[in-house]
User: What shape does this take?
Amino acid sequence: MSRPVTGFVWLRLLVAAIRDPATPLSREEVARQATPGLSREVQLKRLRNVVAKGLREMPGPLRDRILVKTEVMIFRLEG
Assistant: This one.
């Protein structure tokens, strides 16, 4: 997975949080937007890889603001 896709995922979460902090973003929606044209299964697998690797590489204060659940992802602006 390339860095532009990783950057897109984190920026997409941030924009969603700014627009409506109370509404989480569906993992399926993020996967579909990040890798259009691929099958749903491949999209979700790639998103899992981006999240797993990306969270490990983030500085702690930023990583602590991202909440990843089974179906949704949230960038918490309040902390």
Notes: The longest strand covers residues 72-75. Residues 40-57 form the longest helix (18 residues). The CA atoms of residues 49 and 69 lie 14 Å apart. The mean pLDDT is 92.
